[in-house]
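ok so i was messing around last nite and threw this chain in just to see what happens. nothing serious, just curious
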Amino acid sequence: MKACQILAIDIGNTRASCACFVGRRLMSTAHVPTEGLRSVSVADVRRIWKQLGPKDAGPDAVVLASVVPRVSAGLRKAIKAWCGSGPLELGRNLTVPLKVNYRPSSSVGPDRLAAALAAVAKLGAPVIVLDFGTALTIDVVNAQGVYDGGLIVPGIELSLDSLYKYTALLPAVKVKAPAGVLGHSTEASLLSGAIRGLGYVCDGAVAEIRLSLGKKTPVLGTGGRASLMRRYTRCLDQVDPHLTLRGLEIAFRSRDRSL
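result:
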């Protein structure tokens, strides 16, 4: 039996992450700026698939998670025009097989649920997920396997951009590893504050969360800045940059156990 070929797309505020799965196996990934998908066409979607998958056939299914409604609306139309049917989208016509303790449950980001689902599949429950994107999200699945909410914190770029935009003298700064805790220039001070400060938030939040979940509760990092932040936190046990994409594949597979 031929393994199902899946195109998984996770649209974040800054970039869209895409993956080709053959069966359960993650074959390849690619990233495109979210801004570039605001007027997406069939040709654009085909181009993404060509980067990822076999050149002689399109995907058997497309699975989507998005926190940018304007982009996902256009992408749905392009995928339907290409494939003959629209994508399966978390929060619309595809559900995550997790109980959710959130009010209202429909307001939790689909990317957060997908990452939580993949974390449970990888490490079991309870588990804590830190997703380092435009925002840092800290999400918890408790020992009963229930998604139990979390925290949302400005990410590195957002913090730096806000300081530049809303102050008179602070400069724009590109993200790079800070040299030390104490900055000896304005640029160094900003980098240390944004990056090390975010690490302190992670360590403090995880320590408090573990008081109720257990001090050995594993912490899994993901997102575009996870590899950088691993150097500035003490709480991360593992990093999987493709966690949300894996969650999309698992959610898709959960609807039909034969795939």
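not much to say yet. The helical segments are 42-52, 69-83, 110-123, 156-166, 186-213, 226-229, 243-254.
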